[in-house]
Amino acid sequence: MKLPIAAAAVTLALFAAPAFAQDIAAGERSWNKCRACHQLGENAKNGVGPHLNGLFGRHTGEVEGYSYSNANKGANITWDEAVFAEYIKDPRAKIPGTKMVFAGIKNDKEITDLTAFLKQFGKDGKKM
Fold first, then answer.
1. Which one-letter DSSP state was computed for residue 54?
2. Are 64 and 50 in contact (CB under 8 A)?
3. How confident is the model at residue 22 (pLDDT cuts 50, 70, 90)?
4. pTM (two decimals)
5. Long-range contacts of range 78-86, CB-CB < 8 Å, 24 or more positions apart?
């Protein structure tokens, strides 16, 4: 019995890319690498870096009161999971000229977990 082409394509797509279950607690531990420069939550303020409340869906260079580099202001990027994953692996490769001095997180699972943790916080800093 043959699989229909569509079913075969879906099966192939499922196995083509690794899938990671998100672990918010592990993401919170990973957040410790970020918190020296960034804040989250209802009382978050800009520090060395901008606060990260409501990061996903926001454009680069748009947090009020933070002094961004020209590179960030001109990057014209909207943060989503894929862009964030690419950026956090090597910020200076994704946005040359950024002020962010960070070696990056190379592990895909850790990035997925950190993303899940960050996505909990809305623009107002409240957990969604």
1. T
2. no
3. confident
4. 0.82
5. 79/55, 80/56, 81/56, 81/115, 84/55, 84/56, 84/111, 84/115, 84/118, 85/111, 85/112, 85/115
CA 118/CA 103 separation, integer angstroms? 19
Least confident of 8-22, 32-46, 53-67, 105-119: 8-22
77 within 8 A of 83, measured Cβ to Cβ: yes
- The SS3 of residue 128 is coil
- Is the pLDDT at 76 greater than 60, yes or no? yes
Helices first, then strands: H and E counts in the chain: 6, 0
Domains of the chain, with CATH numbers? Answer: 20-118 (1.10.760.10)
Q: Give the pLDDT of residue 10.
A: 42
